[in-house]
Specification:
Shape: globular
Largest sheet: 6 strands, mixed
Order of helices and strands: EEEHEEHEHHHEHEEE
CATH architecture: 3-Layer(aba) Sandwich
Radius of gyration: 18 Å
Bound molecules: adenosine-5'-triphosphate, magnesium ion
Helix content: 25-40%
Number of domains: 1
CATH class: Alpha Beta
CATH topology: Rossmann fold
Number of helices: 6
Length: 237
């Protein structure tokens, strides 16, 4: 793997609090995800999954280690980026269990908002939104208010939003938990397609037994330590 791009985490540790009550949530974690690759991050409750995503997403500060995103060192025993807000907005896409769309904006504007905030002209931002809605097979609902969309359509719009600024990295926390088996597999199929098409590195936190067999590579996390395993990589087509 090209060491310059994708996601690279080396010796990453996170301690919450100090003294007797300190919790070592991550203990020298190593992880690499190539552009175009989707990996699973699996582990029991309290293992450190959300902590790892929050560190990578620059939502909380690690205690030590090194993180590289899309060819740039963002953390090396301290942040190496001056504006973490811009990093989160332009370089990282987030997908959550619930879609969290803005109800009074239509599907297109929910997706176009991020490129607009990043300074893209409105026309260009909307064109990019349409392209993504087409790729995700919801373009026919582009002008609908998001409250009028089905659950699966809302989740696809939220995936389009995560891709809107063409981030090198997408972090997904339990994106399929509320979905039935067919829709869960369809979301994973879409994430794999998008990873390939846009050369995005994607981490999916999950304990969803329906989708775990689809990963080619899985990181297990337990008590703050990660172990890499080859997955089944079951075909999605
Ligand atoms: N803000 C915090 N302050 C102190 N300890 C925390 C904090 N956030 C998480 N922890 C602790 O760090 C450990 C890892 O928590 P984390 O939320 O990363 O687990 P998780 O793997 O996401 O679990 P779940 O599957 O339940 O979401 C746990 O022991 C948790 O109690
Ligand atoms: Mg969690």
């Amino acid at each position: 793997m090209d060491k310059g791009i994708g996601i690279h985490i080396e010796g990453l540790s996170k301690r919450y609090g100090a003294g007797d009550t300190a919790v070592d949530a991550l203990k020298e974690v190593n992880m690499s995800v190539a552009p175009g690759e989707v990996v699973g991050l699996v582990g029991p409750s309290g293992a450190g999954k959300s902590t790892l995503l929050k560190c990578l997403g620059a939502v909380i500060e690690p205690t030590q280690g090194r993180m590289t995103l899309g060819g740039e060192v963002i953390y090396d025993n301290g942040w190496k980026i001056s504006d973490l807000r811009v990093l989160r907005r332009d370089r990282i896409g987030f997908i959550f269990q619930a879609p969290y769309l803005i109800p009074f904006l239509d599907a297109t504007d929910n997706v176009a908002l991020l490129p607009m905030l990043a300074g893209r002209p409105n026309g260009e931002a909307r064109a990019r939104a349409m392209e993504l809605l087409q790729a995700l097979d919801v373009a026919h609902r582009a002008r609908a208010e998001t409250s009028e969309l089905s659950g699966g359509e809302q989740q696809r719009v939220s995936i389009a939003r995560a891709l809107a600024n063409r981030p090198p990295v997408i972090l997904a926390d339990e994106p399929t938990a509320p979905l039935d088996s067919q829709r869960a597999l369809s979301v994973v199929r879409i994430l794999n397609q998008m990873a390939r098409q846009y050369q995005t590195a994607i981490i999916v936190v999950t304990h969803d037994e329906k989708i775990i067999p689809t990963f080619k590579r899985i990181y297990h996390i337990r008590d703050g330590r990660t172990f890499e395993e080859e997955g089944e990589g079951r075909a999605l087509e």
